[in-house]
Structures are given as structure tokens and as C-alpha cells.
Design a protein that fits this description.
The protein has two domains: about 1-25 and about 275-285, no CATH class; about 30-270, 3-Layer(aba) Sandwich (Rossmann fold), CATH 3.40.50. It is built from ten helices and twelve strands. About 30% of the residues lie in helices and about 20% in strands. It is of the alpha/beta class and about 290 residues long. The strands form four sheets. A six-stranded mixed beta sheet has the order 5-4-3-8-11-12, sandwiched between helices.
């Protein structure tokens, strides 16, 4: 059996013996959005758990928008264009908007990567900056979490009047699902925060697993940290195996995220009757 794995930029063909295949798992059928830009605008105007974004933005002078880095297949340009237009309608000027790449402890994204991520127009018109986790002096201390994680968050985000996190919701090996709160921790947290939150006490917990949220200390802690840092609005997307948007959710960091998670469970969850010896999977390429 020939199986294509999304690996690197070009993919990888793997031949597996037919008599050893128990099951070939893939996304369940789900129709991609026919007009994703229109759907996104509707979601911004009718969010979950918050007033419309334009109403929130009307009370702000400055805004910080968090986006994923080059390692995540988020349609950033598609998300940012209507989001930025909404902020402008509310009176926030381009010079008062910072788009912050939530790198966590990944390396900074260079200019060519930023253009690939968000498009030339946004790179040219807006302040687009990388988070730098190891530089503690670029972070603000917000105390400790309930489980003793020191909370250091990028000062550019902390100082903004309006705090927005974008992102992608998909299963995550330790946090249960990506998206929502994860753009804040670890996305714009300092090394001093991440090395504790990403330490063995959290990662070795039996509930710190893919698709698991209830009782998962990784999820619970970064949700708490996200609330402490503040997050006025999220915009998250669910994509299919071909990276086409299936659903947008927007609004409250917890409520909108949970709405997206329920949708993701419906398209990615599968049950295998009994344990298998070997699982072959991949990281979806880039």
C-alpha cells in the first residue's frame, strides 16, 4: 500500500505491507467554506461570548494581534485582512497596531517568511514583530499561576489596549488542542515561563495528551495564564487536510475555543478497536 505523508514541502511516499494495515486514518469528510472571507466577517460581527470586534475596538487606541509563526499552516492573510479593516473602522490607525508573531521559543521568522505568512501588503503597512522568548527584559511579570508557573508575558502585548489572538485549532500532543490560549502561553511567554510550563511535572501527567482537555494541567494552566495576561478576542480557524478553512470561531478566549474544539472532534476523532504495534504519522509538512 502506498501512503503519502505530508512531510517537508514536497511530501513523502511510503510503501507499507498490505497485510499489516489495520486502518488508514484521515480527516472525515467536511465541506470547506465556499466563501471563507464572507464567513469570517460574519463571525467577527457575531462572535461567541463577546460583543462584536468593532464594538470592542471602539474603546481602544492601540491593539496587539498575535499570529502563529511559519511552523503553523494558518491562513494568516485571510484572517488579518478583515480583522485589520474592522480595527480601522473603529478608529485604530495602522501605526497603533502591532502584529506579534507568537514564536514561543522558536527562532524569529525572517522577512521572506513573514511575506509568505501574511502577504506583502501587510508586511509593508504594519508593524510586524517577532516575540523573543529568551529576552526576559522584553517581558512583564504578572505573578504566578496556581501551579507555580512564573508568568512573564511579552510587554508589547501586555501594554496594548485591545488584545487579540488568532490561531489554528487542531489536536495537540500535550495541550489537548492547539489554538485559543496557546498563542499567549507558550506563544508570547518568556523562557522562564515556558521551561516550567513545559516541564516534566506537566508533560508527564496522564491527562496531558492529544485531544484531552478535562483535567489536563497543560491546558488548565495556559488557560489561566491567558486569562491573567488578558485576551479580549480570539479568531481561530479549523482547516482540512488540504489546508482549506472548514470553520471560523471568534470571541471569548474560552467559549469560542470550546466551540471550535467540538467541531474539530467531529472531523478528526476516530476509534480503533484494539491497540496496534506501530502507528505511522507525520507533522503535516509546511
Amino acid at each position: 500500500m502506498q501512503v503519502r505523508l505530508e512531510y517537508g514541502r514536497t511530501g513523502l511516499q511510503v510503501e507499507l505491507p498490505d497485510d499489516r494495515i489495520v486502518r488508514h486514518l484521515a480527516y472525515k469528510d467536511a465541506a470547506p467554506l465556499t466563501e471563507p472571507a464572507v464567513t469570517l466577517q460574519q463571525v467577527l460581527e457575531n462572535p461567541t461570548g463577546t460583543p462584536p470586534l468593532e464594538e470592542l475596538a471602539a474603546a481602544a487606541r492601540t491593539a496587539c494581534i498575535l499570529i502563529c509563526d511559519i511552523t503553523r499552516p494558518v491562513p494568516n492573510e485571510l484572517i488579518l485582512q478583515p480583522l485589520l479593516q474592522t480595527l480601522h473602522r473603529a478608529g485604530i490607525s495602522a501605526e497603533n497596531i502591532t502584529i506579534l508573531v507568537a514564536t514561543g521559543l522558536h527562532r524569529p521568522n525572517d522577512r521572506d517568511e513573514l511575506i509568505e505568512m501574511v502577504g506583502q501588503d501587510i508586511v509593508d503597512r504594519y508593524r510586524l514583530e517577532n516575540h523573543d522568548g529568551p529576552e526576559l527584559d522584553q517581558h512583564t511579570y504578572l505573578g504566578e499561576s496556581p501551579r507555580g508557573v512564573p508568568i512573564w508575558i511579552d510587554s508589547r502585548y501586555v501594554a496594548a489596549d485591545l488584545k487579540i489572538a488568532t490561531g489554528l485549532i487542531e489536536p495537540h500532543l500535550m495541550a489537548g488542542f492547539s489554538g485559543g490560549r496557546k498563542l499567549i502561553c507558550p506563544g508570547i511567554a518568556a523562557l522562564e515561563t515556558i521551561k516550567v510550563w513545559h516541564g516534566p511535572d506537566f508533560l508527564e501527567h496522564p491527562r496531558a495528551d492529544c485531544g484531552s482537555l478535562e483535567g489536563n494541567p497543560v491546558h488548565e494552566e495556559n488557560t489561566w495564564i491567558g486569562r491573567k495576561a488578558g485576551c479580549d478576542f480570539i479568531v481561530n480557524v479549523v482547516i482540512d487536510a488540504d489546508r482549506r478553512p472548514l470553520k471560523f470561531v471568534a470571541g471569548d478566549m474560552v467559549e469560542a475555543f470550546e466551540e471550535g474544539v467540538q467541531f474539530v472532534r467531529g472531523v478528526v476523532r476516530a476509534t480503533v478497536d484494539e491497540p496496534v504495534d506501530i502507528v505511522v504519522t507525520c507533522g503535516a509538512g509546511y
